[in-house]
Specification:
InterPro entries: Glyas_Bleomycin-R_OHBP_Dase (IPR029068), Glyoxalase_6 (IPR041581), VOC_core (IPR037523). By secondary structure, the protein is α/β, with parallel strands linked by helices. The chain is built from two helices and eight strands; from the N terminus they run E-H-E-E-E-E-H-E-E-E. The chain folds into two domains: 51 residues, 2,3-Dihydroxybiphenyl 1,2-Dioxygenase, domain 1 (Roll); 56 residues, 2,3-Dihydroxybiphenyl 1,2-Dioxygenase, domain 1. The chain has a four-stranded mixed β-sheet, with helices on one face. A four-stranded mixed β-sheet has the order 5-8-7-6, covered by helices on one side.
Length: 120
């Protein structure tokens, strides 16, 4: 039996707005847009994707799952994401080498620092 990762589901109050924000942030393409669902992919037909599904209730508390991203230039990427509407948040990370941001609906994600030369 084989198991293949298909997508990550993100509950959203406004799937289209949040999904488009993430498509812009990641440079991904829109695969499906409906009233209650909005799916983005890294490239047409390439998975895994992220599927934003309507959930009427607002996010409460710290996310139990979040994404980490490792850019070439952390400061430039944080500035770009903040320009798109992300905001810095404190989830108790202290003086860490990564920056915790939240998307427009408050879902936390991390922008990591440069990978060490010995990392794969």
């Amino acid at each position: 039996m084989a198991l293949r990762w298909e997508q990550v589901i993100v509950h959203a109050e406004d799937p289209a707005a949040l999904g488009q924000w993430w498509a812009d942030a990641l440079g991904w393409v829109v695969d499906f847009a409906g009233d209650d669902e909005f799916e983005i992919l890294p490239a047409p037909g390439r998975r895994p994707g992220i599927d934003f599904v309507r959930l009427a209730e607002a996010k409460q508390g710290k996310s139990r799952l979040h994404l980490d991203f490792r850019p070439d230039d952390q400061a430039a990427e944080v500035a770009r994401l903040e320009g798109l509407g992300a905001r810095r948040v404190d989830i108790g990370q202290g003086d860490a080498s990564w920056v915790v941001l939240a998307d427009p609906e408050g879902n936390e994600f991390c922008v990591l620092g440069a990978r060490a030369a010995t990392d794969g």
